[in-house]
Specification:
33% helix; six-stranded mixed sheet; Rossmann fold; binds zinc ion; seven-stranded mixed sheet
């Protein structure tokens, strides 16, 4: 296929995870009576700009409908991350009551409300109706559309000019990265800064995080690949930091190219060098990933089959996209994993797409006293284990499948 970023040839297969329904297409009871739409889940790499990207993808309207159930405020570690981000940005860029913060993909307003509390003007851009409505209920202004160059021009003509533009955990979700980054650039005022956070490709590869691959993620980014979109948008990267979120992310700081406001930090060259050393610009870097993903899948299946044979009950925890990729790739069904617990009431009483494992409230853990709790969002494993510490009372253990099977 043609690379979605540079138009080059993107033919080498990085991962082939079979096929699955969109990972947020949770099923209602009525939905169980209908067939689901499954899409191939293959990821290729462009050998010109080194963007790792999904090969086949559903249309955005199909993936982000108004029932989209992800509310960022349900993860307490994410809320802490938002609070710390606000603190850092306000201090570093001297933001005050005269400053404007624009957040793209503002979700339920969890992050923006921290800026609003400090008296800054806040505007969210969020196309998903249910989460945008939740943000409005917090008193935030939300534009209910996808960010495009056209929307950015309309907002900018209307007088919107961002001192800080936040685009955290969204760039991987847009098919046209260059168009998206350009739109972000058009919303920046004089001296404005944009930050982009995304899971780092280096962690995906080194920790075999294949379950972060799903249809809603169009790209898996290194700084090397992302810099193409930044430069093509007339912008420049002036700083980069590594973060622990989502199993290892980058926070990339961007400003208009040639801006006199800030010089480019040495962190940028250092990160590009580290990626080059790791092999991001060599095809052999991507070649072994599929076999590693299959080994992880096989190990999980052996564990679940053995538990079933020996009469031990395994329950899942965390009905999120990661789990759906893993369970559908592995072909796990309710005979091996009878239910998955989730704290989000919007998901309880529904079924996971593809695997059709029922989603239940946490009370079921106490009622059924499982022998093992399989934590699907491994990036939140400490938080979940602390929250469910009571399962140790009856001798249960926790299980994580990635980067390799661990029972603890
Ligand atoms: Zn490319």
């Amino acid at each position: 296929m043609k690379c979605r970023q540079c138009g080059g040839s993107a033919e080498s297969v990085f991962a082939d995870l079979g096929s699955s329904p969109p990972s947020n297409a949770y099923l209602s009871r009525a939905g169980l009576m209908s067939p689901e739409r499954w899409f191939p889940l293959r990821v290729v790499v462009c050998e010109s700009c080194w963007l790792v990207q999904t090969e086949d993808y559903a249309t955005a309207s199909e993936l982000f409908d108004s029932d989209y159930a992800y509310f960022s405020g349900f993860s307490s570690s994410w809320v802490d991350h938002c609070a710390a981000y606000t603190e850092t940005m306000v201090d570093r860029f001297r933001l005050d009551g005269d400053s404007t913060v624009v957040e793209v993909a503002s979700n339920d307003g969890t992050l923006l409300s921290f800026f609003a509390e400090r008296g800054l003007s806040c505007i969210g851009i969020e196309p998903t109706a249910s989460t945008a409505e939740a943000a409005r209920e917090l008193g935030l202004d939300v534009v209910g559309e996808f960010l495009t160059v056209d929307l950015a021009d309309r907002l900018s003509t209307g007088g919107l000019s961002a001192d800080l533009l936040v685009a955290n955990n969204v760039v991987a979700h847009v098919p046209d990265i260059v168009g998206f980054v350009s739109a972000c650039g058009r919303l920046l005022g004089d001296g404005g800064v944009a930050t982009f956070e995304f899971p780092h490709l280096l962690q995906l590869v080194s920790e075999c995080q294949f379950d972060t691959i799903y249809h809603e993620h169009f790209s898996y980014l290194s700084l090397t690949a992302f810099e193409h979109a930044v430069v093509a948008s007339g912008l420049e990267v002036f700083d980069v930091e590594e973060l622990a979120t989502h199993g290892g992310s980058l926070r990339v700081f961007v400003q208009p190219a040639g801006s006199c406001d800030r010089s480019v930090e040495s962190t940028v060259g250092a990160m590009l060098h580290m990626e080059e050393e790791a092999g991001v610009q060599r095809s052999d870097y991507y070649a072994g990933f599929q076999a590693e993903a299959e080994a992880v899948k096989d190990e999980l299946l052996r564990f679940l089959l053995k538990a079933k044979t020996e009469g031990r009950l395994v329950l899942g925890y965390g009905a999120a996209a990661k789990g759906n990729t893993l369970l559908n790739f592995a072909g796990v069904r309710p005979d091996l994993l009878p239910m998955v617990v989730d704290r989000n009431p919007a998901k309880q009483g529904k079924w996971l797409p593809g695997s059709r494992v029922p989603i239940v409230a946490e009370d079921e853990i106490d009622r059924l006293r499982p022998d093992h709790v399989l934590i699907l969002p491994w990036n939140l494993r400490s938080e979940v284990a602390e929250q469910l510490a009571y399962v140790r009372n009856w001798g249960a253990t926790f299980v994580t499948a990635i980067p390799g099977l661990e029972v603890w």
